[in-house]
Amino acid sequence: METLFRKHRILISQVSMDIVRETMQHIAWEKQLVALRGSRGVGKTTLMRQYVRQTYGVNAGEALYCVLDSLYFTNHSLLNLAEQFHMRGGRHLFLDEVHKYPTWSKEIKEIIDLYPDLKITFSGSSLLQILNADADLSRRVLSYMMEGLSFREYLHFYKGIQLPKHSLEEILADPDAVCDEVNRVCHPQPLFEQYLRAGYYPFYDGNETEYYSRIENVINFIVDQELTQFCGVEIANTRKIKALLLFLAENVPYEVNIAKLSAYLELNKQTVLGYLSGLQRAELLHLLYSDTKSVTRLQKPDKIYLHNPNLFYALGQQNHICTIRECFVVNQLAVNHSVEYGKQQGDFLVDRHITLEVGGHNKTFDQIADMPDSYVLADMLEYPIGKKLPLWIVGLMY
Asked: Three-state DSSP class for 63?
């Protein structure tokens, strides 16, 4: 235990409190069992450590923060840790990267049964199966999915510019007021272009080469470790999945031809569809369908995008600006809205009634003329022109 207390003090004292994401305020930390899930690199560990430092201070006592791939757990069980911690008066366990501890779900279930006054907050991969884990925790856990930085959060995180959140309804109802609010404090367009290159992950330090290298490390870890652990991907096929990602980066938005993909990867169609589904759950891809209500797990998607714009730059595909624009819109809207492929008219159908067309500043309404609830999201604009809105405006929603 003393080893864990010492590590707790080191790790919590090292975390910076300069910028704390608003996500912290929306998590019910006081509940008995809380899960933070999300893709590698989006800031789960930092947020957890910041909360511990802000609420309990640096020294372990009522709270204890542990990383579950620590050598300590090679010959100590999580159940044993909870017993000792509770006996010492501990009240809140913070368990980072639980998916690296094989029996995490069974032991957490037993802990909360034995010690109902002990709170547990744990973090894990976006692929973490809470519902179908060995011990079903779905009825007991309050689960949160962490995203990377929105454009609004990027402005705060990297530029010190604080702006309020706006719902999609507020943006569409009065875009002029929203744009006035933003343009009073900054010129959004050049900052937006920076965000598309290096703004989604909260670990950019000013060096784009190193940033893209870290993104590649994230991709490699997800494919080599998480997809093999959670999605049944054979280790021998991980190179093919990386080849698939590069193929999609070069060709997205990809109007899907599963037969072509299967032949390219030398895998059967069901395997390819399963891998695409896993890559979406791992937050490396967005799969779009023309009718989300009737989608089945192994149904062919209508269009495929990389998960966020920074992935294009990390994979050396920064020239696909039209696709990068569309990718940004899908990435920001999909957090709180349903986004379907606009198969008939428009690029996207949002919440089954809002039609969006995405393009450059010369984009017209020709493709969505006479469509109700239709809007153009155009690049290189700072203010709206009627229902033609600046592209960056949808980055203010979370």
From this structure: strand
